[in-house]
């Protein structure tokens, strides 16, 4: 099975900052890497699919990059509503696997 | 709008069975693969299972293989997860998610329900 290592596990930042979260796959997954945002008590929300594509309605301050084994999620100009937990998901081959999550908190 | 509503969770004794359901609306259900993802209290997300649009190609996480069975009824726009031999570590919020394609193999979970809670305890 493909293992996903996500870092950091937690992060503190201020409004207006830029933050980057990384995810590393245990083998190449091409660009089958997706990012989700989850707020307390809510279902996960798709933020980025296929490493760098934004679904309709996701603000352009969110961006994704990478291919193969190393991927990044970058959030620019942090807004109050961005503080949440973020997960990566590899969809290259089943069983699909999530990263451990990154909790983004307000400094 | 896409809507997914899970049901069937509850308190169950270790070793017991349970069947979870997910009722779909707002899209042509039979055209999409579907999946289940769970989240133990205070923990991260765990991918559980996926099924293609016709119910012939099915995938499971190693942690549930042999104990969980995913299925679907395209005439009723409903997804199921039969869970057997439940363990304490199966305690979690179980989410149903629509996949972006038909195969379930490499599709993206794009819409999620709000989850149904399964608690395994004596």
3D structure, described in words:
The complex is a heterodimer of chains A (107) and B (122). Chain A is mainly beta and 107 residues long. Helices cover 0% and strands 47% of the residues of chain A. In chain A, the strands form two sheets. In chain A, strands 2, 4, 5, 8, 9 and 10 form a six-stranded mixed sheet that branches. Chain A has a four-stranded antiparallel sheet with strand order 1-3-7-6, with no helix packed on it. In chain A, strand 8 (85-90) and strand 9 form a beta hairpin. Chain B is mainly beta. In chain B, the strands form two sheets. In chain B, strands 2, 4, 5, 6, 9, 10 and 11 form a seven-stranded mixed sheet that branches. In chain B, strand 7 and strand 8 form a beta hairpin. The mean pLDDT of chain B is 97. Chain A binds chain B through residues 1, 32, 34, 36, 38, 42-46, 49-50, 55, 87, 89, 91-101, and chain B through 37, 44-47, 50, 59-62, 95, 100, 104-110, 112-115.
What is the secondary structure topology, with strand pairs?
The complex is a heterodimer of chains A (107) and B (122).
Chain A: E1 4-7, E2 10-13, E3 19-25, E4 33-38, E5 45-48, E6 62-67, E7 70-75, E8 85-90, E9 97-98, E10 102-106
Chain B: E1 3-7, E2 10-12, E3 18-25, E4 34-39, E5 45-51, E6 58-60, E7 68-73, E8 78-83, E9 92-99, E10 109-112, E11 116-120
Parallel strand pairs in B: 2-11
Antiparallel strand pairs in B: 1-3, 3-8, 4-5, 4-9, 5-6, 7-8, 9-10, 9-11
